[in-house]
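Hi C.,

You asked whether I'd gotten around to modeling the 71-residue construct. I have! Everything is below, sequence then structure, no commentary in between.
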Amino acid sequence: RLRPEEAPYLNNLGLALTSLDRPEEALPVLRRAVELAREFADAHYNLAVALQRTGHGQEAEAEFAAAGRRP
């Protein structure tokens, strides 16, 4: 069952958008996932990747740190 206002759903959608070379569209989706679940490391990581791909390196570094891992 789809639950569009749950962090795992939003994380997967953001990951798919980034994978489809649409990281700008992924950013608000992944930001919402992180907002809903602050401890969700995968969402932080995927947000960091999208940020990096859109030229937001400093913000990406903070999200990689929040995720506890680097690419």
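If it helps when you're writing up: The chain is about 70% helix and 0% strand.

Thanks,
B.
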